[in-house]
Amino acid sequence: MIKRLLLTSMLLGGLAASAQTWTMQNVGFISAGAYPFDISVPDANSAWCVAYDGSGAAANLQEFSRTIDGGTTWTAGLVTTGTNLAFSCISAIDADTAYAMMYDADAGAGGGIFKTTDGGANWAQIAVGLIFDGNSFPNVVHFFDAQNGFAMGDPNGGYFEIYTTNDFGTSWNRVPTGSIPAPLAGEYGIVNDFDVVGQTIWFGTNKGRVFKSDDGGLNWTAVSVPASASRTISAIGFRDANTGLCISTPTSGTATAYTSTDGGATWTLLSPAGPMFLSEVDNIPGTNVWVSCGASTVGRGSSYSTDDGASWVGIDTSGQGTMDGYTEVGFLDINTGYAGGFAVDQLTDGVYKWDAGILSAKDLSPRAEFIAYPNPSQGLVNLRIKARQQDVLVRLIDMTGREVAFHSYQQVSGLFNQTLDFSYLPAGLYNLVVENGSDRVTERIVLQ
Description:
Elements: E1 22-26, E2 34-40, E3 47-53, E4 63-67, E5 75-78, E6 85-92, E7 98-104, E8 111-116, E9 124-125, E10 138-143, E11 149-155, E12 160-165, E13 173-174, E14 189-197, E15 200-205, E16 209-213, E17 221-224, E18 232-238, E19 244-249, E20 256-260, E21 268-270, E22 280-283, E23 290-296, E24 299-305, E25 313-316, E26 328-333, E27 336-340, E28 350-354, E29 370-373, E30 380-398, E31 403-421, E32 428-436, E33 439-447
Antiparallel strand pairs: 1-28, 2-3, 3-4, 4-5, 6-7, 7-8, 8-9, 10-11, 11-12, 12-13, 14-15, 15-16, 16-17, 18-19, 19-20, 20-21, 22-23, 23-24, 24-25, 26-27, 27-28, 29-30, 30-31, 30-32, 32-33
């Protein structure tokens, strides 16, 4: 059973005119018509993606591609596991280390997690005999950091197959049946259909339910999205612990979008203004910006929203490459993200780099006028503000009230981005104070 919403490529004689928001890059996949099915962006320089066959031949692909120079060049490779396996998703730790979930597409069951620590030159299946077996259908693997992760597969033995690890994937513990809601008749998960914010996880099923864990996968709840019992939750994303969007897709007919403001406990039908594309939706971490994309007959192109999906601004209506639409998006932050699209050959296209220049100051809502991320931080803090034509003053105050860092930027206006290096300071709590003219904002940050 292949549980994807299949996208079949359509070669166009020409493309509709559109703003050059995505920068076309060559993904390098060997197979014509392949597209990035999942994109993982661990840092500003590196990103990984895995391939799926979009030619209509339904071939099993083991191809991946990686960039280590911010998307300027991509190098493709193979996970040499056998031609029976195909990708469910990929979770990258850095430029060298990544975990790929793969399923047995020929048998309809089986598969596991494959790991590389040398940039994809070599891959090996991990925890063989400890996680997943010949009756499993593995859907998702995700690592919160280098050490801690979780994995999810379809019901096996009467309950969803969910595991956690805290030792870099060496050993895995299956979550007991009492900690997971029982599956409905015929219910299963969807490959690469999940989202994570902090330690909170959400994933969707083919029976219109959203499963949620607040503790890194140890305990789970489930709710039904209205009118979706016979529909698949084909995409899900959250901006924070409370605010999320999901896409509910029928076997045939039109997909619909839903919104939640309580962490997924309840969902409300969304009637968006403007072009919301329904293949994928993703929040750009640390911001109020959402990006949707489409690569189906229902809608092709991309758009963004700054009001949690209520309204959307079109970016383009067909895609930037030789093939039609976008299949997947993945973001690290407001400046770093990628979209996938059909690659007609090895030399032309297939991946597209985000250009944050599409967003002007007027696009940001008041809650996004000041953003400091990541928080907690290992020392590097990205500051993003909507500034007036005046100086920006940045102060870091420790918990004794002492000023431990000061930065001044002259005559700043519009969207202002700056990376602040506090790695020389002791770990602890600090107040980050930003002044721009008469505006003054304070945010508590944690240095680890």
